[in-house]
Amino acid sequence: MRITLEFVGGKNLVLPIHYNYVVQGFLYDLMGDSDFAAFLHNEGFQYEKRKFKLFTFSRIEGEFKILTDSKGQKKISIKPPFKFTVASPLDEFIFDISKNVLKKEYCHFNGQKFILNSLNIDNPPVFKNKARIKFISPVVMYTTLKDGDIKYTYYYSPWDEKFSPLLLNNLLKKYELVYNVKAKDPYFKLYPLSEKEDRRYSKMIKYKNVYVKGWMGIYDVESSPELLELAYYTGLGAKNSQGFGCFEIIE
């Protein structure tokens, strides 16, 4: 399921320029103290050495401007109404969030109060073998490499030939976790619209104390429909529950 939450208030929402953890924390708080909430927050679904939370969310959408505070730190000021999308193949996750946000008189973002204006359940698109998608939060794909005794993270670009195979491998793990079977005849390929790497779409996002490199933009996709559907709800690539890999289908 996918929902879009819209909020209103009397003042602008002011957040750190890197605010993914604020939205993630808001979503975890909405889940309450159920056993499922504790499991998802503390453990997640394990596949070999990887753990997956199986949800994603978009950037905050709204009229905004960038500010610099007295310490030289950049902030983002977002004028209400503002909204963001939350997606997951786990209905219980979406139900918990929806039920609890509707109960609240006020919703708090980084200590600032806003009122829920609307909660819309997004109508699913038709999932086909080909689609044009637009990322509404950056897509991330990486691997951990070793140089002697030093480990480091290498982030791939959508123009790298390994990008699509890594996306596919990631999706196959999620598919098995969600459906408890392996995908039949799986296929997934993402195509940038330009031949040369367009660095305008490269984004460096700080999540807590770690910088993560991701990519926005519009891309063509060829995929088995069931994998495209799964990606639509889990997000594409890595670090989805930190606010990465959420996309919409535009064609």
Automatic annotation (TrEMBL):
RNA-binding recorded as keyword: yes
Domain CRISPR associated protein Cas6 C-terminal residue range list: 124-249
GO molecular function, one term: RNA binding
Annotated positions for site Transition state stabilizer: 53
GO biological process, one term: defense response to virus
Coiled-coil residues: none
Keywords: Antiviral defense, RNA-binding
Transmembrane segments: none
UniProt xrefs under InterPro entries: Cas_Cas6_C (IPR049435), CRISPR-assoc_prot_Cas6 (IPR010156), CRISPR-assoc_prot_Cas6_N_sf (IPR045747)
Residues at the active site: 28, 41
CDD domains the record matches: Cas6_I-like
NCBIfam families: cas_cas6
Similarity comment: family membership: Belongs to the CRISPR-associated protein Cas6/Cse3/CasE family.
Role: CRISPR (clustered regularly interspaced short palindromic repeat), is an adaptive immune system that provides protection against mobile genetic elements (viruses, transposable elements and conjugative plasmids). CRISPR clusters contain sequences complementary to antecedent mobile elements and target invading nucleic acids. CRISPR clusters are transcribed and processed into CRISPR RNA (crRNA).
Protein name: CRISPR-associated endoribonuclease
Organism, scientific name: Thermoanaerobacter siderophilus SR4
